[in-house]
Each structure stands twice: as C-alpha cells, then as structure tokens.
Write a structure and sequence with these properties.
The structure is a single chain. By secondary structure, the chain is α+β, with helices and mostly antiparallel strands. It has a single domain, classed as Chalcone isomerase. 41% of the residues lie in helices and 27% in strands. Helix 3 runs antiparallel to helix 5 and helix 3 crosses helix 6. The longest helix is centred in the N-terminal third of the chain and has 23 residues. The radius of gyration is 18 Å and the shape is globular. The N terminus is likely disordered.
C-alpha cells in the first residue's frame, strides 16, 4: 500500500522533466534566419511554440534589427520588427482575433486600449475575415516606424498599415508584457529557453 505512493514523486519529476524538454525543443517550423522588411535586413531573434494546456497552437518567430535578450530591450529597440506565425492546429479566425485583443488588454492601460480602438478593430477584422487558419498556414505582423503595422495572411498584406509605435508596442506585449500569453514562448523568442 505504501509502494504506489512512493512512486508518485518520481512520476511527477519525470513529467516535469518531460514538460521542460518539450518546451525547449526546437519548433516544427523552419524559420528563415533573416528576412527583409522595407529594405532593412532583420535577423531571427528567437522562435518557439505556443501551447494552450498540452496542445500546440502555433510556432512563432521574432525578427529584429539586432539581437535582444529581454522584453525591455525589445520594446525600446528602434527600427522595423516582424512576428511570424505558423498554425499547428485549426485556428478559428474570430478566436485568434479575440485572443490577440485580450492579450493587449492584459498588458496595457484602459487609456491605451481606447486610444488604439481603430487599429485594434482592424486586427480583429483581419483575422475574423478568415473563418479559420489551417495547420501549416502562416500569418505575420510587421512593423515599420512611421508607417505602422501591416498584417499578413499566407504572405499577402491585408490592407494598409495601421496604428503607430505605441500600438505595435501593445501588440508585442501580448507575448512580451507582464502577463505574456505563454512565458515559455516568451523565453524562447528572447533566446532564453534552456536546452
């Protein structure tokens, strides 16, 4: 009767180690080591997988003009930036848009959210306009200072750029703010994941 209970700590430790190694595992997606955004060459800063519970949702990559290792460095880094995503499961467009909006609200003040209502509405429209993203399909968000944020689905821009620097900072905070969507993904994108 005592033996099964003695095995429980070992089982929990094994599960914790397995979860840790899964989080540090390379993404299924092979992201390009560099991309060009409006004439500027950006380098892959980091990549990781977004999990909800135990399910893989999407692979994600962060591209910057120079390597950053903290959220503070990223949020103050001048120049263009790109967030690249590849769906790993079927993702309803309306759910994706709502989750992004929730992430912004979790990491911004009410005044900031109100200031950027038009740009936020555009973000929801872009993803809600597509019934679902299928596994393997890509989407992206690209920021160019002075021009704003452009949303891409399957490599095609979805209308004109929207918002300003503060709006894209709010977008970044979905993954790099005080309440990130996934702390392990945040670490991976900043090159902090433990191998």
């Amino acid at each position: 009767m005592h033996r099964p209970n003695a095995a429980l700590p070992a089982l929990l430790l094994a599960l914790a180690l397995a979860a840790g190694s899964a989080a540090a595992a390379p993404t299924a997606t092979r992201f390009d080591p560099a991309v060009e955004v409006q004439g500027s060459k950006l380098q892959l800063n980091g990549a990781g997988t977004r999990y909800r519970a135990i399910f893989k949702v999407y692979d994600m990559a962060l591209y910057t003009t120079k390597k950053v290792a903290t959220s503070a460095e990223l949020l103050t880094l001048p120049g263009p930036k790109r967030l690249q995503f590849v769906a790993l499961r079927e993702l309803p467009g309306t759910d994706l848009g709502r989750l992004f909006l929730k992430g912004m609200g979790d990491n911004a003040t009410r005044e900031q959210v109100q200031r950027h209502t038009l740009a936020s509405t555009r973000l929801i429209e872009v993803f809600s306009g597509r019934s679902k993203m299928m596994p393997g399909e890509s989407f992206a968000m690209e920021f160019v200072p002075g021009k704003g944020t452009t949303f891409y689905i399957l490599g095609k821009p979805q209308g004109e750029p929207v918002g300003d620097d503060e709006f894209f900072s709010m977008v970044l905070r979905i993954w790099f703010g005080e309440s990130p969507a996934d702390p392990l993904l945040k670490d991976a994108l900043l090159g902090q994941s433990k191998e």
